[in-house]
Design brief:
The structure is a single chain. The chain has helices spanning about 15-25, 30-50, 55-60, 70-80, 90-110, 115-130, 140-150, 160-165, 180-215, 215-220, 240-245, 250-270, 270-290, 295-305, 310-350. It is mostly helical. It has a domain at about 25-160 and about 175-205.
């Protein structure tokens, strides 16, 4: 007689299977990059709103040449969202504008990030869709990043939320029930997908910009950079613009260098070191655009989006240096306060001392 076949091993309980898979399912990719994108995007939009505070009603409000009636006609075709279409009164506009400023600040510091990113996205859409004829290109990127950030865990690090969690830690993820574990795994998956979409968006921006430039005659003959340097609107520093624009070799190198970097950046992602070099050069290029052409918010928006490709080791090194500098400064203040203590006591003593 043959021995009976062994009984199959019992399947693991659903709860045990979920707990075993938690470390993999709850992995949040690129948390530091997400934090930099969050801070940069919200900071850029908040700074823009502050700069335009005096002209806010002319740009987006009841004094705008692009009237609410004209905008309503456009919205009927585009079906874009803006809370400012609900009322064309001044105080409703003022409330939305102030809410946009507050939400940008909340997102930048990472306060109640899940809720504040939703509010931030809604206010960005409300103002930008009230007058689509404003902006310099950076507003389109802020528009997209504001939507993408809603689906990320951009407050996992470098935020007030992270600080609060560190002070009041909750339960270990292994002790969560199945519904919460599943919800957290879904949130992690959405975050990772959103970070991938942000990366793809940045690649598409550079790829399309580079390939369109390749087809332009001015970019082909190497003179494209020369022309904006001659326009008064893009000359905040006329002497510097004249110095650069007066050199044929410099304008030729900047023109061709811009095309090569933008076309080559998507291909550099396969080589980490080359990608890091091109990323650093593009950040410098955006800062130069901010200085030479007077487009600070466009440049800040681009640099904020580029941060999705920054190496984690670089970001951690920056954090370490910043923490070290802050700790040294606090220690110096404490040492200075301790040294001034006896002096202060002596100065507070009546003239002549106790014998006086």
């Amino acid at each position: 007689m043959t021995a009976p076949a062994p009984a199959p091993a019992p399947a693991p309980a659903p709860a045990a299977a979920v707990r075993a898979a938690l470390p993999r399912l709850l992995t949040t990719l690129a948390p530091y990059q997400a934090a930099v994108v969050r801070i940069g995007t919200a900071g850029t939009w908040g700074a823009y709103l502050l700069r335009e505070w005096g002209d806010r009603r002319v740009l987006y409000g009841d004094r705008s040449p692009w009237s609410a009636e004209l905008n309503d006609r456009l919205l009927a075709d585009t079906h874009a969202f803006t809370a400012l279409s609900w009322s064309d009164g001044r105080w409703w506009f003022e409330a939305v504008y102030l809410l946009a400023l507050l939400s940008a600040g909340a997102v930048a510091v990472g306060w109640r990030t899940r809720a504040s990113t939703v509010l931030f996205a809604l206010t960005v859409l409300s103002l930008q869709n009230r007058n689509v004829f404003l902006g310099d290109g950076g507003d389109n990127l802020v528009h997209l990043m504001a939507i993408y950030l809603v689906f990320t865990r951009c407050g996992a690090v470098w935020s007030l939320d992270a600080r609060r969690r560190a002070r009041r830690p909750g339960k270990d993820p292994a002790e969560w029930g199945e519904p919460r574990a599943l919800a957290d795994a879904l949130a992690a998956m959405l975050h990772n997908c959103a970070m991938l979409v942000i990366a793809v968006q940045v690649v598409l921006v550079y790829a399309t910009a580079g390939w369109y430039k390749v087809q332009g005659g001015r970019w082909q003959d190497g003179t494209a950079v020369f022309y904006p340097l001659q326009l008064d609107y893009f000359r905040p520093w006329p002497e510097l613009s004249g110095l650069l624009g007066g050199s044929l070799l410099v304008t030729f190198a900047l023109t061709y260098g811009t095309v090569v970097m933008q076309v080559g950046f998507p291909f550099s992602l396969a080589a980490r070191r080359l990608k890091n070099v091109l990323l650093a050069v593009m950040v410098v290029e955006h800062l130069a655009i901010a200085l030479l052409l007077g487009l600070p918010f466009f440049s800040l928006a681009m640099v904020s989006a580029d941060a999705v490709f920054l190496p984690t080791s670089f970001l951690l090194a920056v954090r370490g240096r910043a923490a070290g500098w802050w700790s040294a400064r606090r220690a110096a203040r404490r040492a200075g306060g301790a040294a001034e203590g006896p002096v202060g006591a002596a100065e507070a003593e009546p003239v002549g001392g106790a014998d006086g």
